[in-house]
Amino acid sequence: MKHILLAFLMMSQFAVAQHKKQVDTTSTQELAEVFITANRTATLRKETPVAISKLNAKTINETKATAVYEVVNKTPGVLMVNLGNEQHMMAIRQPMTTNAYYLYLEDGLPIRPMGIFNHNALLEINQFNLQSIEVVKGPVSSLYGPEAVGGAVNFISLKPSLNPEFKFGIQADNFGFRRIQAAGGATIGKIGFLIAGISSLQTHSWMKNSDYNKDNLNARIDYNITPSTRLISNTMYGKYYSQMSGTVNEDSFYNRTYNSTSDFTYRKSDALRTRLTLEHDWKDNSASFLTAYFRDNKLGQNPTYRIKWSATSNPTTATGEINSNNFKSYGLLGQHTQKIDLLNAKLVAGALYDYSPVTYWAYRVDLKAILNSEATTPTVDHYEILAERPDIRITDYTADIYNKAAYAQFNFNPIDQVVVTLGGRYDNMKVAYNNAIDLSSGTKIYDKATFKAGMNYNPLETAGFYGNYSQGFAPPGITSIFTPKSGTGGTTGVAAEFYYNLKPATFENYEVGGWLNLLENKLNLNYAFYYMEGKNELLSVKLEDNTTDYRSAGETRHKGVEFGANYTPSKQFNIRLGGTYAQHTFIDFLVSNKPSDPVQNLNGKEMPAAPRWSGNSEISYYPNWLPKFRAAIEWQHVGSYYQNQINTVKYAGYDLFNARVGYQWKAFEFYGNIMNLTDKLYAYNVSRTNTSGAAPTYTAAAPRTFVFGIQYHFSLKK
């Protein structure tokens, strides 16, 4: 912490010195930009004591992404890992992980209820319905609740336009991807409406057995009852189906054959979310809202990551799993924001109630493993289904989840140029369950009060600084609880054992940061130093047969610096730089006390899939000699990281370059993206078990890809 405080003071002194050099200064775009997510209300950056970034409509439009990760990765300190066909992992102040340490929001409302986290939830997002994306880094549990530990990502959707508008686009690449997308809306009298839809199809890609299709439709209706009272309806429906090609072995990766080991694995999803919000603005600039919402999700899988195979015990056989996870949610969220003249204060207070019944079942699939005859060690070439075994249930439970929460946050100005923020929240998650495998039933309760305190100091119009302390809380997902422990149940002859004793993970985060504006507002800088300690963090231990064992014990430490810069030397150029340096370490993390286990205590070891360096930067060009033309080169860097938990083998990481061009002609925009410009061989993720001589598995990334598209935008402005 001494180094962090010293750096903070140095940056403060540097900002003051720069200010003295400037003759004329104005409020910067960075300080004046309005954020919603950090404080649950519209708030200026200079009043927000957290690390927060905003991706605006211009950035989203110019990216022309085929998947959300292409946009989100432009945020300093964020690495959204592509797993193919819009499936993903995330790394925000955490290693690349599928654990429930991130909160994904749509217009401020969580996409999933607490306890039913899905790391692939963002595949339900409609990219053609986005106005902006806000990313808060670090714990925001005191406002948004559990799982908001590494951070929160809020997707803010389009609003009805005042005048009739319509946009339509088609998009395709050289590997069989095609998308049609359209959106339109208007305001007629007191009623505004907007409809946005996409339909994506992938066939015959570079990776075998990786076809997918996705259809999403969003509809919004705003009824302006009076100038101060609004009724807003928002509905999303999406269908998704994808083959799961999974990982490839080392030979396939380096030979670029990209043969999937399974042609039968899949993931399918049906999602419905609808909400009705009543908003009212009071005469004293205060505001209230009440939201009633409903979710209906059905997720079915025959996942590659559930295939169990061992190179040492009967390597010609394996088992898989077919599962189904369905839930519904009925909820209410109410919030009031009160402005107070004394000390220019603002109070935000709210409460939530959510009832989510869930059913989950999984049964075994018997597989034959066809080995690679040319490999020196046993390696699977592909799997074949021998029999589906619905008679052998692996998991089978129902549960009613009751989430209750109350939160409050208070901002005030004790003196000029200083804003103090205090916040707290209490969460209570009750799970009433019936486990058909061990014929048990009961109730589990996870509750926690979380707190945060922060301060902003804005000595200049061109500089601001902040510091905060925040707490994070994440109960184990109920799927983890009711997954049988490896080696129990089924035909093993051992009674199934479950993870009833998994503990909630808790985190404490200390952070300082700030922003500067130099060179007459042409250069914007922002930075954040953080130190976060975790206890009982849920750890997935990858076993020899590719199964996962869960542990919640010991401590972890996460520390790093995030930095971003935006330089606009002229109207023709914009240079963006962003990145992070981080260390994620196990502290006294005892995972086993069995002498035969390959790993005992991970104390002092780096967490796997945790690159120290990562970042995304871009140079954009808007030539004066060709108005309405744009071109950009983007650089994505991911540093080296350990493949396993015992830190014996590293993956070197990669440097990736993407190029984008576009030209606006009247109401038409023509564009082209080249992803992986240099045709680099790389993998999004590489992992291996802790056993000696374990073979790595590669989540292969696409070779050079050409994306083409045309977009039409019609607007009838008065």
From TrEMBL:
Coiled-coil stretches: none
Subcellular location: Cell outer membrane
InterPro entries (alphabetical): Beta-barrel_TonB, Beta-barrel_TonB_sf, Plug_dom, Plug_dom_sf, TonB-dep_rcpt-like
Topology with respect to the bilayer: Multi-pass membrane protein
UniProt entry keywords in alphabetical sequence: Cell outer membrane, Ion transport, Iron, Iron transport, Membrane, Receptor, Signal, TonB box, Transmembrane, Transmembrane beta strand, Transport
Domain TonB-dependent receptor-like beta-barrel: 211-677
Keyword Transferase attributed: no
Main localisation: membrane
PROSITE patterns: TONB_DEPENDENT_REC_3
Signal peptide: 1-17
Pfam families per record: Plug, TonB_dep_Rec_b-barrel
Residue span(s) of domain TonB-dependent receptor plug: 46-152
Family from the record: Belongs to the TonB-dependent receptor family.
Protein name: TonB-dependent receptor
